[in-house]
Write a structure and sequence with these properties.
The complex is a heterodimer of chains A (149) and B (113). Helix content of chain A is 23%, strand content 37%. In chain A, strand 6 and strand 7 form a beta hairpin. Chain A is built from 5 helices and 8 strands, in the order E-H-H-E-E-E-E-E-E-E-H-H-H. In chain A, strands 1, 2, 3, 4, 5, 6, 7 and 8 form an 8-stranded antiparallel beta sheet that branches. Chain A has a single domain, classed as START domain (Alpha-D-Glucose-1,6-Bisphosphate, Chain A, domain 4, 2-Layer Sandwich). By secondary structure, chain B is mostly helical. Chain B has a single domain, classed as Orthogonal Bundle (Arc Repressor Mutant, subunit A), CATH 1.10.10.10. Chain B has a two-stranded antiparallel sheet with strand order 1-2. The longest helix of chain B has 38 residues. The chains are: A alpha+beta (149), B mainly alpha (113). At the A-B interface, strand 1, helix 1, strand 8, helix 3 and helix 5 of A face helix 1, helix 2 and helix 5 of B.
Chain lengths: 149, 113
C-alpha cells in the first residue's frame, strides 16, 4: 500500500491491484462483488442493502452492519460521474455538507491497476499532513501552512 | 445548517480568520484585544468569530468579567481528526479486502479454464 502525500483539501489514498481496470471497476460497482469487501474489518455489507444505479445521478447506497453490535451504518451516495473503467465519483449529502469521493482507475499496462481515491469538501486545515499527524505538532507547523492558503 | 458537533466543528473551521485565531490560542490564552491586534478588524468582528468558535466548543472564555481570556479547547478538533483517520482506515481495510476478493475471483476464473 502506498499513501501519497495529501494535497490540501483532500484525503488521498493510492493503491495498486493485481487486476485489469475493467475487473477492478466492476468489483467496485457491482453489488454481488461489493458485498464481499465493502465493509471494513468487523463490518458486513449484506447484498440486500446495496443499491447501485450505474449512471450519473444514480443511487449508490450501502448499509454496513457492525458484526458484533448489529448497528447499521447506511451510506446514501449519488453518482456524479460513472465512466467505466476510468472513473466514478459520488456525493454523500448527509456527510459534512456534501462530501465527494472520486476514484480514478489507472491502467498500468501490465495487468495491474492503480486506484487513486480522493475525498474532498473537507476543510483543508484538517486534511493537511500536519493536522493528521497530531494536534500538538500540527499547530506549531500551522502558521507556515496557513500562509499558503 | 447541520447541527451535529462534527458539522459545527467543520463549519467553524471553514473560516480562515477563525483558524488563525485558533492557531494563536493554541500557543496560549489571549484576550479579545490581543487577538484583534494582528487583524485589521474591529473588536466587534473578532468577538463575532469568537462566539462561533465558542459555540462549536473549540474555545472557552474565562469568567473574569473585564478580560474574559480565551482558551483553546482541543476536544472537537481531535474528534474531527479522528473522523478523518477513521475514514482513511475504512478505505484502507476496504481495499485490503478488495485485494483478497480479486485474488479469489482470478483463481476461480483460472480453474474454469
Amino acid at each position: 500500500m502506498s499513501d501519497a502525500p495529501n494535497e490540501p483539501g483532500e484525503l488521498r489514498i493510492t493503491r495498486i491491484f493485481e487486476a485489469r481496470p475493467e475487473v477492478v471497476f466492476e468489483c467496485m460497482t457491482t453489488p454481488s462483488h461489493l458485498t464481499h469487501f465493502w465493509g471494513p474489518i468487523g463490518m458486513s455489507t449484506p447484498l440486500e442493502g446495496i443499491t447501485i444505479e450505474p449512471r450519473p445521478g444514480g443511487r449508490f447506497e450501502t448499509v454496513m452492519i457492525n458484526d458484533e453490535t448489529g448497528e447499521e451504518y447506511p451510506v446514501r451516495g449519488v453518482f456524479v460521474e460513472f465512466d467505466p473503467p476510468r472513473t466514478f465519483s459520488f456525493t454523500e449529502a448527509g456527510v459534512e455538507g456534501g462530501m465527494v469521493t472520486a476514484i480514478v482507475f489507472n491502467d498500468l499496462g501490465d495487468g495491474r491497476t492503480e486506484t487513486v481515491t480522493h475525498q474532498t469538501n473537507v476543510p483543508p486545515m484538517l486534511m493537511s499532513p500536519e493536522a493528521q499527524a497530531g494536534l500538538e505538532t500540527s499547530f506549531v507547523k500551522f502558521d507556515a501552512y496557513l500562509a499558503t492558503l | 445548517m447541520a447541527t451535529d458537533p462534527l458539522s459545527q466543528t467543520f463549519a467553524a473551521l471553514a473560516d480562515p480568520t477563525r483558524r488563525e485565531i485558533l492557531v494563536r490560542l493554541a500557543k496560549g490564552e489571549a484576550t479579545v484585544n490581543e487577538l484583534a491586534e494582528p487583524f485589521t478588524m474591529s473588536l466587534q468582528a473578532v468577538s463575532k468569530h469568537l462566539k462561533v468558535l465558542e459555540a462549536a466548543g473549540l474555545i472557552s472564555r474565562g469568567r473574569d468579567a473585564q478580560y474574559r481570556p480565551c482558551h483553546f479547547e482541543p476536544g472537537p478538533l481531535e474528534a474531527a481528526t479522528d473522523w478523518i483517520a477513521q475514514n482513511r482506515r475504512i478505505w484502507t481495510e476496504r481495499f485490503d479486502q478488495l485485494e483478497e476478493h480479486l485474488k479469489r475471483i482470478t483463481q476461480e476464473k483460472e480453474k474454469e479454464k
